């Protein structure tokens, strides 16, 4: 069973460009979480999605950031008009359950975004 | 809001030494507690967990006990190996408190010298 897959592993963008980060959950998992890890910081929750639904986006910056998890295909985290402060590692996790029913979250290897 | 505080690193130990990494938390609900480990270039792996007070999580020689009275979940191992070198994250899940994602500490970089 393949683990959580993220691509690209490394992404370099110039200020003002768009960044698209992809996450394919483990087979059978319908819950996806995105986290951001800034340098010297722990992971911060950004958004929780189920297929075709955003359940909790309380950790998402109000502007330029969006996420989706379509019926078919990977989950996408999109950052428009990137700035240097967006440089970070972005991790995706998936699980079989969410909300008040806890299930282990399996993490992908992350995408390291560098904005120049 | 919820928060997790863990000891700053790096922590450098010799092989076979005893390890303690402190972790304390604040939460509005009744959280589950976790330790994750991150090896270089990889994602996080769940090391152990405890879902209620006085539970002890254990795996690969690591242990941590959920102490509600001290709001702590310290990670311990009796004899560390070079292969234990990694970054360790303490985390909590508190969906009853309104948060769907995990809340992480900043991580502790552990270096084991032969």
Looking at this protein, list some descriptive labels.
heterodimer; A: 116 residues; mainly beta; seven-stranded mixed beta sheet; four-stranded antiparallel beta sheet; 11 strands; globular; B: 114 residues; six-stranded mixed beta sheet; 12 strands; 0% helix
Summed up:
Chain A has 116 residues and is mostly beta strands. In chain A, 0% of the residues lie in helices and 48% in strands. In chain A, strand 4 (31-37) and strand 5 (43-50) form a beta hairpin.
Describe this structure in words.
The complex is a heterodimer of chains A (116) and B (114). By secondary structure, chain A is an all-beta fold. In chain A, 0% of the residues lie in helices and 48% in strands. Chain A is built from no helices and eleven strands. In chain A, strands 2, 4, 5, 6, 9, 10 and 11 form a seven-stranded mixed sheet that branches. In chain A, strands 1-3-8-7 form a four-stranded antiparallel sheet, with no helix packed on it. Chain A is globular and about 35 Å long. Chain B is mostly beta strands. In chain B, 0% of the residues lie in helices and 50% in strands. Chain B contains no helices and twelve strands. In chain B, the strands form three sheets. In chain B, strands 2, 5, 6, 10, 11 and 12 form a six-stranded mixed sheet that branches. Chain B has a four-stranded antiparallel sheet with strand order 3-9-8-7, with no helix packed on it. In chain B, strands 1-4 form a two-stranded antiparallel sheet. In chain B, strand 5 (32-38) and strand 6 (44-50) form a beta hairpin. Chain B starts with a strand and ends with a strand. The model of chain B has no long low-confidence stretch (mean pLDDT 92). Classes of the chains: A mainly beta (116), B mainly beta (114). At the A-B interface, strand 5 and strand 10 of A face strand 6 and strand 11 of B.
């Amino acid at each position: 069973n393949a683990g959580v897959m993220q691509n690209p592993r490394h992404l370099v963008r110039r200020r003002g460009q768009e960044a698209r980060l992809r996450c394919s959950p483990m087979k059978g998992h319908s819950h996806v979480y995105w986290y951001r890890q800034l340098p010297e910081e722990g992971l911060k929750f950004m958004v929780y999605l189920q297929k075709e639904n955003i359940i909790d986006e309380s950790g998402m910056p109000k502007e330029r950031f969006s996420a989706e998890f379509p019926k078919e295909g990977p989950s996408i985290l999109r950052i428009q008009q990137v700035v240097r402060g967006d440089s970070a590692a972005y991790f995706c996790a998936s699980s079989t359950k969410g909300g008040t029913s806890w299930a282990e979250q399996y993490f992908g290897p992350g995408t390291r975004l560098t904005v120049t | 809001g919820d928060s997790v505080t863990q000891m700053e690193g790096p922590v450098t130990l010799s092989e076979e030494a005893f390890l303690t990494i402190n972790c304390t938390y604040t939460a509005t609900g009744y959280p589950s507690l976790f330790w994750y480990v991150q090896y270089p270039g990889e994602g996080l792996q769940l090391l152990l967990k405890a879902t209620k007070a006085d539970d002890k999580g254990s795996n690969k020689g690591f242990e941590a006990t959920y102490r509600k009275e001290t709001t702590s979940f310290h990670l311990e191992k009796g004899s560390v190996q070079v292969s234990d070198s990694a970054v360790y994250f303490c985390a909590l899940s508190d969906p009853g408190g309104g948060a769907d994602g995990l809340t992480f500490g900043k991580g502790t970089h552990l270096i084991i010298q032969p």
